[in-house]
Amino acid sequence: MPDATAQRGVKVMVIDDSNTIRRSAEIFLVQAGCQVVLAEDGFDALAKIADHQPDIVFCDIMMPRLDGYQTCALIKKNARFRNTPVIMLSSKDGLFDRARGRMVGSDQYLTKPFTKDSLLQAVATYGPQQVQ
C-alpha cells in the first residue's frame, strides 16, 4: 500500500464524461490529500490544463467530442506538458486499447471500475515525489 503522505498536495486532473466517475475519483483523491481538478471532456481539460498545471492526469477514453486518445496525444504534444504522466481510464481492457494508449503516450492504463487503491497507487507511482 502506498504511503498516504506521498499524495499530499499532488495536483491531479480527472477527465471523464461520467459525473459518477469524476466524483468517485475526487473523493478518493481528496481523502488522500490531493488537490483535484475535474474536467468533463477533452476540450474542457485542454482549457483547464494550462491554468492548473496538474502533476498527473487521469483520462477516460470513451468521451464525446474529443476522446481520451486524442486528449492524451494533445497533452503529450505540448512541450510544457510532455512529461506530465497521463493514466488512461477505460472499461475496455483489450490488448488493442492498451497498445493504442501507449501509442499516444499514456503512462499507464487503469480499468474501470477502478479501486481507491489502484488510483492512489498510480498517484504514488507517477506523482512528483516518486524520487527515492
UniProtKB/TrEMBL annotation:
Gene Ontology MF term list: DNA binding
Listed CDD domains: REC_OmpR (cd17574)
One of the protein's GO biological processes: phosphorelay signal transduction system
UniProtKB keywords: DNA-binding, Phosphoprotein, Two-component regulatory system
InterPro entries: Bact_response_regulator (IPR050595), CheY-like_superfamily (IPR011006), Sig_transdc_resp-reg_receiver (IPR001789)
SUPFAM superfamilies, alphabetized: CheY-like
UniProt domain Response regulatory: residue ranges: 11-127
Pfam families assigned: Response_reg (PF00072)
Modified residues (4-aspartylphosphate): D60
Gene3D superfamilies: 3.40.50.2300
Protein name per Swiss-Prot or TrEMBL: Response regulator with CheY-like receiver domain and winged-helix DNA-binding domain
Lineage: Bacteria, Pseudomonadati, Pseudomonadota, Betaproteobacteria, Rhodocyclales
